[in-house]
Every structure is written in structure tokens, then in C-alpha cells.
Amino acid sequence: MEKIKMTTPIVEMDGDEMTRILWKMIKEHLLEPFIELNTEYYDLGLEHRNETNDQVTVDSANATKKYKVAVKCATITPNAARVEEYNLKEMWKSPNGTIRAILDGTVFRAPIVVKGIEPCVKNWKKPITIARHAYGDVYKNAEMKIPEAGRVELVYTARDGAKTRELVHEFTGPGVVQGMHNISQSIASFARSCFNYALDTRQDLWFATKDTISKKYDHTFKDIFQEIYDAEYAEKFKEAGIVYFYTLIDDAVARVMKSEGGYIWACKNYDGDVMSDMISSAFGSLAMMTSVLVSPDGCYEYEAAHGTVQRHYYKHLAGEETSTNSVATIFAWTGALRKRGELDGNQALTAFADRLEKATIDTIESGEMTKDLALITSLENPTVLNSEDFIKAIAKRL
Ligand code: NAP
Ligand code: MG
Fold it and tell me: Does the predicted model carry a pTM greater than 0.85?
């Protein structure tokens, strides 16, 4: 069989622990036999990040700007324990944070829906994609504990020294206070990424905040979305037959529960953090959740939503058999290959991505799956496969 050729490389970001093991297996059994893989390889494994003083992460993000499409393996975000375990020079920052800061994107997370893994919400038939704004709000806040009675104000000092004040609270006893911010440019990027992704995937877009209570902060998000929609996207949405609508966050939550899915739900940073965990667990498993970072200028970085599955890795190192679910990592590859195919007009590559996804879903639906899915499936007598045999079962179908 002649292998599928690629004209432009994909940026390949290798990672850590169990997902690094899966990465190699996926390439060996599912990709390399069929495609002349053309990737620009960056090793984001923690050891190599440490050796390069994390320059490799920056380089991989810049390469993504150049080639527009990247696929990333899960990586360790070091904490104190990891600094010791890997003898690190520094507690390096989260690679995802670094990449996001360079690409200025929005993260879209969508569950992979298969028969036999039923959502807890019985009317959900199609995936619900969460678009999470990845800048500011409570994640870049300033906080104070107020020890005793006193006045707290917000003070804005303009370049010319002019001050504007807003009373937060006149404390009569101890309490707490928090200041947060966002930037209009970041909100606008968020909005454009959401509108582009909705057009790309031909799904309706919902956006929700609490603008009735937060009349300046949240209202600014609502206004920026509406202005950009009216000026740049209204026509395109009409042509694509999709809808953008804004509603209050509490109304959105109620509607989501009663919906059948099949749309994108754009959330502010905190709402997206919380709601994406709710959506993924209600759809079945974190191991069945894909994630793509989309930048406003059209760069795409695909990955699994889960981490490096450390517990399984230690079992693997101890020589024990593992049954780690590779589906989200496979879909990270298919997402990247399909996008590469679309951008290059490479139909063979796009068709391959579709076929690999179908082979993966068919394998599970026929009853062959990893342990995490076997525990929650409604199929009777599922066959539990180990990490490698599951990938080989997909390869056989492919
Ligand atoms: P995790 O790797 O997502 O794993 C948490 C648990 O979820 C696992 O122990 C496992 O449960 C289950 N699980 C997750 N993915 C699975 C899969 N593919 N197949 C089967 N089970 C799966 O999260 P973590 O243990 O909190 O984090 C480990 C490392 O990943 C950390 O160093 C963290 O920094 C990093 N991380 C990276 C990313 C990223 O690169 N995007 C995201 C999150 C975390 P059982 O043990 O019960 O089987
Ligand atoms: Mg979270």
C-alpha cells in the first residue's frame, strides 16, 4: 500500500509519563504504517524542558505560529515534588500556559461520544463543546484579608495621574476582598476564536455571563461579543445556517441540561474551568475529552484533556500491565491531521483522519475497550484490553 504524503509538517510536541508511552504506540501502530508522517518534532518531556531551560516550549509554540497546526502530548506541570523527582533547575511553568500566552488562544473541549458510554444527562445526544477564555479574572486576581474595620476602594490612576475611585466596602469588622481584571483585546480574541470555531465546525454558539449583576465587568464581555458579531460574523453565520446567542449564565445552565447538545458554549475563565469538568464527567470520562487551542489568527493546537496518567506510568515502570485509554490522544492526532489536510487541500489525509476516528469508535462499540470504559459501559461483557492491545485492535480495524 502506498503511504499518504504530507506537504507541510505538523508541529509534534512530545510529553511525559504514560501518555509518552501511548504516543509512541499510536505513531507505530496507527500512523506510520499509513502515512509518511511529516512532523517537526519538539520534545516537551520534562527532562528536555529542564535541559533547555524551557526554551523548547517557546520554540514549539513559535513553530505552531509558522505551520498553524500542532499536536501535543500531555506534559507534567512541575510542583515541589516534581522538582525533586526530576532534579529540576527551576519549577518550570505549565507548558500549556506558556503556549497559550504565545498563541493567545481559546481552549475548546469536546467529549467523544460513543454508543455504550451513555451520558448521565439522558437527553444529551450530541457533544457539548466548552470554549473557555484562558486569560484573567480570578486567575490573575489580587486578594486581601481585611483584619478589622476600614474602607476598601478600587483606585485607577491614569497616565496623567488623575484618579478614579470606587468604594468596594466600608468594613465594620474583619472580612476579605478581591480585585480582578481583564483586557478588552483578550476578550476580543476570545470572541473571534469562538466565532471562527463555530463556523469551522458548523455549530451554534452560546455565550453566557452574569451581566445583570455585573453591569460593567460582565457587561463588557457581552458588548464586545455583540459588536464583533454584528460587524464581522452575522452574515457568515447566516450563510452557514448557524446561530449566535447570548443569555444569562443561570439560564444557560438550565437550557444546557434540557438540550440535546451539538453546540459550543463559550464561558468566562472560571465558568469554563468548572463547567468543562461537569460536562466531561457527565459525558462519561476525562479520557474521552479532546481539547484544542485555537488562536485568533488561525493556529490550532490539539491535545487530550487529561494529564500524563502518572499512577498508570508507575505501574508500567514496575513492569505491571496497564489499561490506559488512548482515545483522546488518538483524537488529538486525527484533529491535527484533518486540519492539516484541510489547510493543504490534502483529501487523502482528511479521509484518513475520519477513518481512524471511525475505527476507534467502532472498536469500543464492538465491546473492546480499556478498563476505565469497561467500568462504566452499558454494553454487556466488554473485553478489557491492555494499553497496547487496545491500540492494536484499532489498527486491525483500520
Ligand atoms: P491525570 O493524568 O488526568 O489522571 C488522573 C486520573 O484520571 C488517573 O489516575 C486515572 O484514574 C484517570 N485517567 C486520566 N486519564 C486517563 C486515561 N487516558 N486512561 C485511563 N484513566 C485515565 O491527572 P493527574 O494525575 O492529576 O496529573 C498527572 C500529571 O499530568 C501532573 O503532573 C499534571 O501536571 C499533568 N497534567 C497535564 C495536563 C496537560 O498536559 N494538558 C493536564 C492535566 C494534568 P485511575 O488512576 O483511577 O485509573
Ligand atoms: Mg478544572
Answer: yes
